[in-house]
Each structure stands twice: as C-alpha cells, then as structure tokens.
Amino acid sequence: MTPGGLDRTDPEGAVAAAAKRNSNWGRWGTDDILGTLNFLDEAKRREGAALVRRGASFSLAQTFDADGPPKGWRRRTNPVHTMLDTGLEAERGTQGFPHGIGGADDVVFMPLQASTQWDGLGHIFDHGMAYNGRRAGDVVTSEGDKVTGIETTAGLIAGRGVLLDVGRVAGDAAGELPDGFAITVEHLEATVAAHGDSARVGRGDLLLVRTGRLARARREGWGDYAGGPSAGLSFTTADWLHDTEIAGIATDTWGFEVRPNEFDEAFQPLHQVAIPHIGLFLGEMWDLDALAADCAADGVHDFWLTAAPIPVTGAVGAPVAPVAVK
User: Fold this and answer.
1) Residue 255 and residue 232: Cα distance in Å, rounded?
2) Helix, strand, coil share (%) of the chain residues, nearest 5
3) Residue-level pLDDT at 73
4) Contact indicator for 77, 281 with CB cutoff of 8 Å
5) This model's pTM is above 0.85
6) Which site from 99, 135, 145, 263 is most exposed, i.e. has the minimal number of CB atoms within 10 Å?
7) Domain definitions of the chain by residue range
C-alpha cells in the first residue's frame, strides 16, 4: 500500500472505484459536451473580473519554438516555424504588390500539445469510453473529435483563477518539489491555509498548481521534463477534484499528475478518471513562476484569468496563451 492507502498492484481497481464515485455522466444531460466548464457561469466570470485591482498582467505561456520540451514521444515534436515571405523579398520588390508595399508571412507545423496547452474531453478514454458515456470511436475518428472538439470551449475559459504554490509551501528553499512528490489533498489544503482567504478553491474556479518543475528545467535544461519523473497531483486527489467543482486545473508540469505514477504498472491513471469521468479540463506546461512571485509578494492568490485554447475544429487538445491579471 502507498501512504495514501492505494494498492500499488491494482491500478485498474483504483481507477474503477474512483470513476464510480466521481462520475459526472448525465449530470448536465445526455447531450452535454462541456463537463466541468458548466460550473464556470456568468456570475463566476463577474467575480473573476472584479479581481483586477492593479492591472498587473502575467503571461502563463511557454514559448512555442524549436527549443521547447518535446522529445518525440508519440510523435510529439517541437514546432517547426517557416517563413513564406520575408523582408528580402520585400526589399527586392518580388512580391508583386503595388506602390512599394511589402510584407512577411509564415507558417507553423506542430503537435497541438507541444507546449502550454489544454487537454480536451476527447483526449483520454477509459476502457473505450469517452466523457458522458459515449463510445470513444463515436467521438474521435480520423476526422477528429466530432463531439467534444476543443472548439466547443470557445469563449468559455475565463473567470476567477487561483494559484496554489505548493512548491513554495511544501518544497525546498528554491520553492521546488522533488521528482516523484505526490501532492495530496492535505498538501493542497495546507497551501490554501498558508496563502489565506484569497486562495480558497471552489465551484467554477480555474485552479493553477505550481510545483517548481518548470523552474528547474529552465535552470538545468529540459532533460526528462517532457514525460519523465516529476512532482504532480496524487491519484488520491480525484475525489477532491470532483467535489470542489472546479472548472479546470493546470500545472507547470508535462503530465499534471505525479510521475512515476503511484502504481507498479500504470500510465496516467488520474487522467483516466479526471477527463472521461469527471469531465475536467487539464492544463499542462503552464509557466506559473512570475505570477507565483507576485502572489508571494502581495499575498493575493486569486485573479482574473483568461485561457482560451486555439479553436482548432475537432482537436482533442490545443495550445493556449493564458493571461492572469491582478
């Protein structure tokens, strides 16, 4: 058994039990495609907008370039950026435009989860079943996610953001958690208590959890940041993630949950509960360091957050450039 009472030899049983306890299938009707975004209503957005006090703005996105973290796992590579037209063509007048006007154009080829991104509801299945009890093959085909594609979230992911800097509260002097550190409910609640009332977490919130893993990767090099060992959410937080009724959660790690996972043979079991059963939107590889430093300085851990993914039709995940405003 793990310290949290998990049987390390039975991930399938743990997933099945957690899925049964925390299923949101049918909660918003059999046709629902938004999952926990149903919690993020207009009142919650007004609450979030009222949190803008100073006007200080923070980008929470990593860059999208050839020097990013992907290592080719499951054909996830860094973006390839190519110019279609440049200043050279403009100088030489070869672009075919009248009266001296010139321009530049470019194109990017990339996996949609190469850097800061959201996991959509069609990204993970459990025993061939997708969110809200649909057959996986009826949801995602060679044409993409025909039901819960990321474009269905357009305009919705904006509201009250909350940062829980677990790295600063439970980590080392640098504010970083060691690889393999499983963040439990007790760690989350202790962090809320340490941060104060502005860090309360509840219905419709967009929760950000900082581990410090990205800060270390920047200092030491990418190494195994993409897919390797990391601090992250414990599988035992599944009930808390469901019961708090948050709209989404994002971390500064590649995989959101602790790695290695808490079972002898498993791969991302918390994903297997959170996405297809809870209907929870997961954000990964977010850059939370500058925001965390500001929150530590002024003691305020909630803010207006807007985090719309690029609405690629049928995509099961998409890049995002989140902005927090305090």
Assistant:
1) 8
2) 30, 20, 50
3) 85
4) no
5) yes
6) 99
7) 12-73+111-325, 80-109
